Structure formats: C-alpha cells, structure tokens
C-alpha cells in the first residue's frame, strides 16, 4: 500500500513540475513573441529611414553633378535619361 501511495505522490510531484515548467515556458514564449514583434517593427522603421536616406543621397549626387562636379556625371546622365523615359511613358498613358 505504501508503494502505491509513494508512486501516486511521485506522480503528483512530477505533474506539478511539468505544469510549472509549462507555465514558465508559456510566459517566456509570450515575452519572446513580444520582443520579436517590437524588433520587427524597429527593423521596418530603420529600413524606411535607410530608404529615405538612400534617396536623399542619390538626389545629392545628382545635385552635385549638375552643380558642376565632374564625378558621377555618367550616373547623373543615366538617371536623367531614365527619368525622361518614365515621364514619356506617363505622357503616353495619359494620351490613351
């Protein structure tokens, strides 16, 4: 009889440990999910800032080239040509 009681107590203790571990892991998972969400949001914001800065840098390069700087002249000409092509496409679509 005492072996059966000991087995039951051991089983109860094991179940309590499992439940305790489950609750701990559940809380930890929630925290990690929250951290993941906030980090993804932060990453998205940083990517948006980076895109804006890249566009500003390209505009600055174009401005410097137009200003008379001899560096990046080829890049500026290519950019202007691509902008002209885009404008032509827009005009064509508006005329249709």
The global form is: rod-shaped
Order of helices and strands: HH
> By helix and strand content, what is the structural category?
mainly alpha
Percent range for helical residues? Answer: over 70%
Major beta sheet summary = none
Poorly predicted residue ranges: none
Q: How many β strands by DSSP?
A: 0
Number of domains: 1
| Average pLDDT, all residues | 87
What is the straight-line distance between the termini? 94 Å
| Count of DSSP H/I helices | 2
Percent of residues in beta strands? under 5%
**In angstroms, what is the radius of gyration?**
32 Å
Keywords: Coiled coil
Coiled coil: 8-56
Protein name: Mis12-Mtw1 protein family
Organism: Polaribacter dokdonensis DSW-5
Structure at a glance:
This is Mis12-Mtw1 protein family. The protein has 96 residues and is mainly α. 93% of the residues lie in helices and 0% in strands.
Descriptive account of the structure:
This is Mis12-Mtw1 protein family. Residues 8-56 form a coiled coil. This protein is mainly α and 96 residues long. It has one domain. The protein is 93% helix and 0% strand. It is built from two helices and no strands. It has helices at residues 2-67, 73-95. α1 crosses α2 (73-95). The N and C termini lie far apart (94 Å). 0% of the residues are buried.
Helix/strand layout:
Layout: H1 2-67, H2 73-95
Helix pairs in contact: 1-2
Entry keywords:
single chain; 96 residues; mainly alpha; 93% helix; rod-shaped; coiled coil; Mis12-Mtw1 protein family
